[in-house]
Structures
1.
Amino acid sequence: MNELSRVVWSEGMHLGPHHFQAQNRYFENLIRFTWGALRFAPWGLAGIQLDTEALKNGVLRVIHAKGVFPDGLVFLTPEPDEAPPERQLQPIFPPLRDSLEVYLAVEPASEQGPNCDLEGDGSRLRYRAKTEQVADELTGQDVKPVRFAAKNLHLAVESEIGGRQAMPIARIRRDAAGRYTQDEKYVPPSMSMQASPYLMGLLQRLVEILEEKARTMAKPKDLGAGTLSGFSIEGISNAWFLHCVNSALGPLRHLMEAGSAHPEELYMELARLGGAAGSGGAETTGAGMINCTPHNGQAHICPACDSSACNRCP
């Protein structure tokens, strides 16, 4: 339910939990609507870490995760939300496949309820009530028990998603000996580049390559030989490529140092660099980058975006 109408408060009205719930929905939906209107794909991971030691033993366990589901639900584990229960990989891994995508899933919000497991009976609802002792923040005294709605997160594979909100978080590979490893080159939908060490490593290598290109081409060959205009064809090509490199280095270096930028910003810079370099006759054109869709749910990186492509440029 996308409720964007505020509650009408009036003197003498009878107050019930429905009023406060509706007010809370209004503010949540207002934030989601505004954020979605301002940003491309305003959902994804902001950070994720799996237990690699447990993975070696065939156990899928999340150490920490943070991000936003496609419906706008924010999560942060292990605090304040508990990490999802671990899963044994052997029963859920298809016997004829060598890789498996795993998802973080949660039940969708129900307009008519129920939405919260109040009794802790293991019901698979969107939230699970947990009680914490809270003091008056002004005096630090008068401690009272307060119940909070923690997100009821689960690990799932594609066949288990059904109607739940779900987001891919990793790809698990299995070798011929039955050992499980995390695919380090897998890039899940992300809100921050820091959520993918592979993406950050790729960007760092790309910046290093471009810096080296800029140094080696800082003193181009004689541009005054070969044509009536005073510039050789090779000189013009080198000068254009040097312009492309130097124009891209600043923004790419900033994205690398900040780390918190949306992957879309990296995609735009790579597409701009690829298009400009391709216009100068370089072997690597911008077509491969421009056709690549970031954050499309398929969680992949176009090969043309890999830093190795820049090594083939002049």
Note: The first helix runs from residue 17 to 38.
2.
Amino acid sequence: MNKTTKTLGLIVFAFFISQNLYSQLFINKIDNKDIEIVKRLIPTKRYGSIMYDYIRIDKRTKEPLRGKYKVIVNKDEYYKAFFEEGNLVVKNKINLVKYYYKGKYQKLYIYVG
């Protein structure tokens, strides 16, 4: 490898490390027991058709979850997700919800908006 390739590789590596560390600093933590799931009715244009939306609300503040959260399920299990107005389905984007068990990555849920 030449000097330019090594330098570029080092820059890319440093960028990804800094982004990961930066995102860890600004992640909200919440217990799963502090989240309330509320079913919201969405009227549709079709006759007799009803849709439901499930939003997640912080029980302490009564506000929908907004932003990136680390949701602690129990002492060994948690997941990281992005919420937009309490919803896991983010409008016009793909939302990846990553589940961890004992600190190891276990499964991935993909929500498409």
Note: Residues 3-112 form one domain.
